[in-house]
Amino acid sequence: MSDATLTALPKTEQPHPGAPDNWKRFFTFSTDHKVIGIQYIVTAFFFFLIGGLLAMVMRGELITPAADLVDRTVYNGLFTMHGTIMLFMWTFPFLNGLANYLVPLMIGARDMAFPKLNAVAFWMVPVFGVILMASFLVPGGPSQSGWWAYPPVSLQNPTGNLINGQLLWLVAVALSGISSILGAVNIVTTIVRMRALGLGWFRMPVFVWAVMSAQIIQLFGLPALTAGAVMLLFDLAVGTSFFNPAGGGDPVLYQHFFWFYSHPAVYVIILPIFGVFSEVFPVHARKPLFGYPFVAVSSLVITGLSGVVWVHHMFASGTPDWMRMLFMFSTMLISVPTGVKVFAWVATVWGGKIQLTTPMLFALGGLVMFLFAGVTGIMLASAPFDIHVNNTYFVVGHFHYVIYGAAVMGAYAAIYHWFPKMTGHMYYEGLGKLHFALTFIGANLNFFPMHPLGLQGMPRRVASYDPEFAFWNVIASIGGFILGLSTLPFILNILSSWVQGKKAPNNPWRAIGLEWLVSSPPPHENFAEIPVVVSGPYGYGSNEPLVELAESKAAE
Amino acid sequence: MFGFVVFLLSETVIFLSFFVGYIVFKTSATDWLPPGVEGLEVRSPAIATAILVSSSFVITIAERYLHRENLWGFRSFWLLTMVMGSTFLYAQAMEWLSLPFGFTAGTFGGTFYLLTGFHGLHVLAGIVMQGVMLGRSFIPNNYAGGEHGVASTSLFWHFVDVIWIVLFALIYLWQ
Hints:
The structure holds 2 protein chains of 2 kinds.
Chain A: H1 3-8, H2 33-61, H3 72-107, H4 115-134, H5 165-193, H6 206-237, H7 251-262, H8 264-285, H9 292-306, H10 321-333, H11 335-349, H12 358-381, H13 383-389, H14 393-423, H15 429-447, H16 450-456, H17 470-500, E1 532-533, E2 547-548, H18 550-555
Antiparallel strand pairs in A: 1-2
Chain B: H1 2-28, H2 43-67, H3 71-98, H4 106-136, H5 143-173
Helix pairs in contact in B: 1-4, 1-5, 2-3, 2-5, 3-4, 4-5
């Protein structure tokens, strides 16, 4: 990439007329995708801390076999809200924020396709967050039926009040669904219709491919969950009997609606993280992404296959054998496109000039933990094994290796990688590495013991357990506390470097990609002149320019 | 327009989920219809169906007038579409009032009111969108801006019609 190309693009942020040009803009109904992106990310992280605190109380309870810290009812509310907050209030909003911030920059657009709709979709997040958190205050406390809200458990209303924890949960989830569908319409339209000239499908960064694939799942899967949630809401509030067996309803049908979306939801989370890995590895190993077209298309293949795997969550729900076989096969099949990505990342890093920066450490750590999650995932896809460990801690361990090990580690990699671009400041590398060390050690100490516990038969969702499970639980709790502690250097790092960190150059990593061509932070409307893309996004080691500008061309 | 098509695809999945629910409940139920109910009357809903389906043709004529820049032709046929949609809603309200069972009458009552009610809300949304477009057609020099909204509204109306045809077949013809 020539210096001429870099200097031809704007270097200073130009506030648009009437908009505050300081921290206050993050508290306004802004239609700038970058402001909305940061609003999403900060809101999501706030809820991540709340979800994490609930988890720490649970690990505090589980450090001894007896239910002595909180009673069983409170414990049920804790794991329900922990799961719900972490999925609906942390991962989806965080990834929407990342996509919002990066996608228009990466595709050479000035904003999202529907900026006002974008702001509306974001502002629904604090609204449903407040509704969800309000359930701590209503009589009977929050929902106790787990984040999956299976009937008939979720139809129980011991207090008899119309406004109860489960009702608020269902309203919040339905609102979250609407917000995510609006976000998905916006993101998919932006990617399909607003790419800069020359940015063909196979010049698009893998992150953009991955985000698009994930949002397609939101569009086609989420309505099924929303339909199920609405029917459950009527059952609970009005007395219909869609899923109430006492009135002739079918509770297993709810499981189908729920998992038709909620298994693919894992790909909604993990695909953009795969995108993050695909951006971080080439930059910090100084090598082109190995097998780029295959890595790009494998996201779409995962999206396609994700629609035919949901029944593997129901192997123990009276599912007939032929269906178990079919879904066992389809679930295992999804490891093929996933394997394509993993091998491509390994080949990318292999022999590269690896710089162990904080984002690279988080990406490598996330990849290692994802590999472990993948292996246990294939084990769980096998119906005989799944039935053996069904409802044990093995499943909890697998799930947390995916969601914390890969997704949260990937999220941290993304934050550190794009932090200089978003804020215009560099983070403190030492604090970043301390954060990584504590996170990696804490996560593995916390989640690995869940596997032997599950194999020994410890059930999930229990506040007390047999003393024979005590050893691994103590280790897991220590890991959980280290994990909780690990967020402190992160918060300190982000806040202090945002306020007084070293000024970041436009392209601190010497990365290739349209977002690195603009100033840090990028100006309003991103590009003074929309660039014409003339090559692919991973040309490390080659001297061909990424973009061509009309002005520079005219000057020639 | 592309974004709107994407949104409608997502809406289709919500309706499909409700349809799947209806089929599962009907095929597995031992007591499908509420006690004392023999079946649903088909004649009036069939007439309402004919009106709604015809309105899809009427709205297309309105769009053609807009393309020929004949604003009064557009407004007349556009308004006729709104009247036809409102007639459909009125017929559905009358049917609801005459039925001897409610929302909580087993899985049949639940799915019947859920499906027809959710569809009815879409018809209402379509009429509101049509009203907005009709109002915009009176704003001077708004012709170019209105055309895009008119196309989306028209597409939404066709979508609502197609959904109703499936719904009518499921609920009224497959008894």
